[in-house]
Design goal:
Elements (H helix, E strand, L loop, with lengths): L1 H37 L5 H6 L7 E8 L6 E2 L6 E2 L1 E11 L7 E10 L4 E5 L2 E5 L4 E4 L2 E9 L36 E9 L4 E11 L2 E5 L6 E4 L3 H32 L1
Parallel strand pairs: 7-12, 8-13
Antiparallel strand pairs: 1-6, 1-11, 2-3, 4-5, 4-10, 6-7, 9-10, 11-12, 11-13
Length: 257
Protein backbone atom coordinates (compact mmCIF):
# COMPACT_ATOMS: atom_id res chain seq x y z
CA UNK A 1 0.00 0.00 0.00
CA UNK A 2 2.91 2.33 0.78
CA UNK A 3 4.40 1.69 -2.66
CA UNK A 4 1.05 2.42 -4.28
CA UNK A 5 0.71 5.68 -2.34
CA UNK A 6 4.21 6.79 -3.37
CA UNK A 7 3.44 5.96 -7.01
CA UNK A 8 0.20 7.94 -6.89
CA UNK A 9 2.01 10.89 -5.32
CA UNK A 10 4.65 10.83 -8.08
CA UNK A 11 1.94 10.72 -10.74
CA UNK A 12 0.17 13.64 -9.05
CA UNK A 13 3.44 15.61 -8.91
CA UNK A 14 3.98 15.01 -12.63
CA UNK A 15 0.43 16.22 -13.30
CA UNK A 16 1.14 19.35 -11.24
CA UNK A 17 4.21 20.00 -13.40
CA UNK A 18 2.19 19.53 -16.57
CA UNK A 19 -0.55 21.73 -15.14
CA UNK A 20 1.99 24.45 -14.36
CA UNK A 21 3.19 24.43 -17.95
CA UNK A 22 -0.38 24.51 -19.26
CA UNK A 23 -1.19 27.42 -16.93
CA UNK A 24 1.84 29.34 -18.23
CA UNK A 25 0.66 28.64 -21.77
CA UNK A 26 -2.87 29.74 -20.84
CA UNK A 27 -1.60 33.07 -19.48
CA UNK A 28 0.32 33.67 -22.71
CA UNK A 29 -2.78 32.74 -24.72
CA UNK A 30 -4.90 35.18 -22.69
CA UNK A 31 -2.44 38.03 -23.31
CA UNK A 32 -2.37 37.12 -27.02
CA UNK A 33 -6.19 37.04 -27.17
CA UNK A 34 -6.53 40.39 -25.39
CA UNK A 35 -4.15 42.01 -27.87
CA UNK A 36 -6.22 40.67 -30.76
CA UNK A 37 -9.53 41.74 -29.22
CA UNK A 38 -8.40 45.29 -28.44
CA UNK A 39 -6.72 46.06 -31.79
CA UNK A 40 -8.97 47.70 -34.43
CA UNK A 41 -9.44 46.12 -37.88
CA UNK A 42 -8.93 48.13 -41.06
CA UNK A 43 -9.21 47.60 -44.80
CA UNK A 44 -5.85 48.49 -46.40
CA UNK A 45 -7.45 51.28 -48.40
CA UNK A 46 -8.78 52.88 -45.21
CA UNK A 47 -5.31 52.77 -43.63
CA UNK A 48 -3.86 54.69 -46.56
CA UNK A 49 -6.58 57.34 -46.33
CA UNK A 50 -6.73 58.19 -42.62
CA UNK A 51 -4.68 61.16 -41.52
CA UNK A 52 -3.45 59.80 -38.18
CA UNK A 53 -2.47 56.16 -38.29
CA UNK A 54 -3.30 53.99 -35.24
CA UNK A 55 -0.53 52.60 -33.07
CA UNK A 56 -1.60 49.04 -33.94
CA UNK A 57 -3.89 47.75 -36.66
CA UNK A 58 -5.23 44.42 -37.91
CA UNK A 59 -5.79 43.61 -41.58
CA UNK A 60 -6.98 40.59 -43.55
CA UNK A 61 -5.27 40.47 -46.93
CA UNK A 62 -3.51 38.34 -49.53
CA UNK A 63 0.26 38.07 -49.82
CA UNK A 64 2.06 39.14 -52.99
CA UNK A 65 5.61 39.71 -54.16
CA UNK A 66 7.46 42.68 -52.74
CA UNK A 67 9.75 45.17 -54.52
CA UNK A 68 12.48 42.50 -54.83
CA UNK A 69 10.11 39.90 -56.31
CA UNK A 70 9.31 36.44 -55.02
CA UNK A 71 11.75 34.49 -52.86
CA UNK A 72 12.82 30.88 -53.29
CA UNK A 73 13.15 28.94 -50.03
CA UNK A 74 16.59 27.32 -49.64
CA UNK A 75 15.59 23.71 -48.84
CA UNK A 76 12.43 22.92 -50.79
CA UNK A 77 12.98 25.54 -53.53
CA UNK A 78 9.41 26.79 -52.99
CA UNK A 79 8.41 30.18 -54.41
CA UNK A 80 7.24 32.28 -51.48
CA UNK A 81 7.07 35.76 -49.97
CA UNK A 82 8.59 34.68 -46.62
CA UNK A 83 10.39 31.62 -45.26
CA UNK A 84 11.83 30.36 -42.01
CA UNK A 85 14.45 27.64 -41.59
CA UNK A 86 15.34 25.73 -38.44
CA UNK A 87 18.22 23.31 -37.90
CA UNK A 88 18.42 21.13 -34.77
CA UNK A 89 21.48 19.04 -33.91
CA UNK A 90 20.87 15.61 -32.30
CA UNK A 91 24.01 14.68 -30.34
CA UNK A 92 25.11 12.75 -27.29
CA UNK A 93 25.63 14.83 -24.16
CA UNK A 94 28.93 13.13 -23.27
CA UNK A 95 31.43 10.55 -24.51
CA UNK A 96 29.60 7.65 -22.88
CA UNK A 97 26.77 8.12 -25.37
CA UNK A 98 24.04 7.38 -22.85
CA UNK A 99 21.93 10.53 -23.33
CA UNK A 100 20.99 12.34 -26.54
CA UNK A 101 20.43 16.09 -26.55
CA UNK A 102 18.67 18.31 -29.08
CA UNK A 103 20.49 21.61 -29.63
CA UNK A 104 19.06 24.36 -31.86
CA UNK A 105 21.71 25.46 -34.37
CA UNK A 106 19.85 27.92 -36.59
CA UNK A 107 16.41 29.53 -36.48
CA UNK A 108 16.37 32.15 -39.22
CA UNK A 109 13.75 33.80 -41.40
CA UNK A 110 13.75 36.03 -44.46
CA UNK A 111 13.60 39.79 -44.00
CA UNK A 112 12.74 40.91 -47.54
CA UNK A 113 9.55 43.00 -47.63
CA UNK A 114 6.44 41.64 -49.32
CA UNK A 115 3.11 43.14 -50.36
CA UNK A 116 -0.32 42.74 -48.78
CA UNK A 117 -3.39 43.34 -50.93
CA UNK A 118 -7.16 43.45 -50.49
CA UNK A 119 -9.99 44.83 -52.62
CA UNK A 120 -9.49 48.33 -51.18
CA UNK A 121 -5.72 48.77 -51.55
CA UNK A 122 -2.27 47.50 -50.65
CA UNK A 123 0.53 47.96 -48.13
CA UNK A 124 4.13 46.88 -47.76
CA UNK A 125 5.02 44.41 -45.00
CA UNK A 126 8.54 44.50 -43.52
CA UNK A 127 9.04 41.22 -41.60
CA UNK A 128 11.96 42.12 -39.35
CA UNK A 129 10.31 41.47 -35.97
CA UNK A 130 7.65 38.91 -36.80
CA UNK A 131 5.81 35.86 -35.44
CA UNK A 132 4.25 33.74 -38.18
CA UNK A 133 1.60 31.26 -37.03
CA UNK A 134 0.36 28.24 -38.98
CA UNK A 135 2.72 28.70 -41.92
CA UNK A 136 3.07 25.75 -44.34
CA UNK A 137 5.71 23.22 -43.31
CA UNK A 138 7.30 22.40 -46.67
CA UNK A 139 10.46 20.62 -45.55
CA UNK A 140 10.90 18.18 -42.65
CA UNK A 141 14.02 16.04 -42.98
CA UNK A 142 16.34 14.14 -40.63
CA UNK A 143 19.87 13.42 -41.86
CA UNK A 144 21.47 10.66 -39.80
CA UNK A 145 25.05 11.43 -38.81
CA UNK A 146 24.98 14.95 -40.29
CA UNK A 147 27.07 17.64 -38.62
CA UNK A 148 25.61 21.11 -38.02
CA UNK A 149 25.95 23.31 -41.14
CA UNK A 150 27.84 26.58 -40.96
CA UNK A 151 25.13 28.35 -42.95
CA UNK A 152 21.45 27.44 -42.56
CA UNK A 153 20.60 29.19 -45.84
CA UNK A 154 22.85 26.86 -47.83
CA UNK A 155 20.55 24.03 -48.92
CA UNK A 156 21.54 20.44 -48.13
CA UNK A 157 22.55 18.26 -51.08
CA UNK A 158 19.22 16.86 -52.26
CA UNK A 159 18.34 14.99 -55.39
CA UNK A 160 15.53 16.27 -57.58
CA UNK A 161 13.18 13.61 -56.23
CA UNK A 162 13.97 14.67 -52.66
CA UNK A 163 13.02 18.33 -53.03
CA UNK A 164 9.70 19.48 -51.64
CA UNK A 165 7.99 18.09 -48.57
CA UNK A 166 10.22 15.50 -46.89
CA UNK A 167 9.19 13.41 -43.90
CA UNK A 168 11.69 13.05 -41.08
CA UNK A 169 13.08 9.52 -41.15
CA UNK A 170 14.47 9.22 -37.66
CA UNK A 171 15.33 5.62 -36.75
CA UNK A 172 14.76 4.18 -33.27
CA UNK A 173 18.19 3.78 -31.71
CA UNK A 174 19.69 4.36 -28.28
CA UNK A 175 18.04 5.25 -24.98
CA UNK A 176 16.49 8.42 -26.40
CA UNK A 177 15.04 6.57 -29.43
CA UNK A 178 16.98 8.94 -31.69
CA UNK A 179 20.22 8.77 -33.64
CA UNK A 180 22.82 11.53 -33.92
CA UNK A 181 22.33 13.84 -36.86
CA UNK A 182 20.48 16.99 -37.85
CA UNK A 183 16.84 17.85 -38.45
CA UNK A 184 16.04 20.46 -41.10
CA UNK A 185 12.69 22.27 -41.04
CA UNK A 186 11.37 24.92 -43.37
CA UNK A 187 8.12 26.94 -43.34
CA UNK A 188 6.84 29.35 -46.02
CA UNK A 189 4.15 31.90 -46.80
CA UNK A 190 3.16 31.46 -50.44
CA UNK A 191 2.05 34.26 -52.77
CA UNK A 192 -1.72 34.64 -52.90
CA UNK A 193 -2.15 33.25 -49.39
CA UNK A 194 -4.85 34.91 -47.28
CA UNK A 195 -3.36 36.03 -43.98
CA UNK A 196 -4.36 37.88 -40.84
CA UNK A 197 -1.84 40.52 -39.78
CA UNK A 198 -1.50 42.56 -36.58
CA UNK A 199 1.23 45.20 -36.88
CA UNK A 200 2.21 48.83 -36.50
CA UNK A 201 1.34 50.92 -39.58
CA UNK A 202 3.66 53.70 -40.73
CA UNK A 203 3.49 56.00 -43.72
CA UNK A 204 6.60 56.02 -45.91
CA UNK A 205 7.11 57.24 -49.47
CA UNK A 206 3.42 57.90 -49.84
CA UNK A 207 2.32 54.40 -48.86
CA UNK A 208 1.57 52.40 -45.73
CA UNK A 209 4.23 50.06 -44.33
CA UNK A 210 3.38 47.45 -41.68
CA UNK A 211 6.15 46.64 -39.19
CA UNK A 212 6.68 44.97 -35.82
CA UNK A 213 8.90 45.76 -32.86
CA UNK A 214 11.19 43.74 -30.62
CA UNK A 215 8.77 44.02 -27.68
CA UNK A 216 5.62 43.71 -29.79
CA UNK A 217 6.40 41.76 -32.97
CA UNK A 218 4.13 41.67 -35.97
CA UNK A 219 1.73 38.70 -35.94
CA UNK A 220 1.00 36.99 -39.26
CA UNK A 221 -1.27 33.95 -39.40
CA UNK A 222 -2.91 31.86 -42.10
CA UNK A 223 -5.85 31.56 -39.66
CA UNK A 224 -8.27 34.45 -39.27
CA UNK A 225 -8.80 36.42 -36.06
CA UNK A 226 -11.78 34.41 -34.82
CA UNK A 227 -9.91 31.13 -35.32
CA UNK A 228 -6.95 32.49 -33.36
CA UNK A 229 -9.21 33.68 -30.54
CA UNK A 230 -10.89 30.25 -30.34
CA UNK A 231 -7.46 28.59 -30.16
CA UNK A 232 -6.43 30.93 -27.33
CA UNK A 233 -9.66 30.28 -25.39
CA UNK A 234 -9.11 26.50 -25.68
CA UNK A 235 -5.61 26.89 -24.23
CA UNK A 236 -6.99 29.05 -21.42
CA UNK A 237 -9.71 26.54 -20.48
CA UNK A 238 -7.19 23.67 -20.44
CA UNK A 239 -4.60 25.63 -18.46
CA UNK A 240 -7.06 26.92 -15.85
CA UNK A 241 -8.53 23.42 -15.36
CA UNK A 242 -5.61 20.97 -15.25
CA UNK A 243 -3.52 22.61 -12.52
CA UNK A 244 -6.31 22.92 -9.89
CA UNK A 245 -7.36 19.30 -10.56
CA UNK A 246 -3.74 18.14 -10.27
CA UNK A 247 -3.31 20.01 -6.96
CA UNK A 248 -6.49 18.41 -5.58
CA UNK A 249 -5.24 14.97 -6.61
CA UNK A 250 -1.87 15.63 -5.00
CA UNK A 251 -3.54 16.72 -1.75
CA UNK A 252 -5.70 13.58 -1.75
CA UNK A 253 -2.72 11.29 -2.34
CA UNK A 254 -0.83 12.98 0.51
CA UNK A 255 -3.80 12.54 2.85
CA UNK A 256 -4.29 8.92 1.86
CA UNK A 257 -0.58 8.22 2.17
Amino acid sequence: MDDLAVTLQLVALILVGVGGYLLWRALKARAHRRRLETTPNYPLGRLSEIETLPERAEVLAETAAGPEGLLVSPYSQTECVWFRVEVVHHHYADETGDRLELTPVFDLHSHQPFTLKDVTGSALCRPHWIEVEHADLVHDRFDEGAVPPTDALSPPHLGTDERGVCTAGTKVAGPAALTPGCTFHEWVLRPGERVFVRASPHRKEGGVVLVGGEDDPMIVSTHNEQELIREDRSKEVLGYTVLPVALVLLALTLLLG
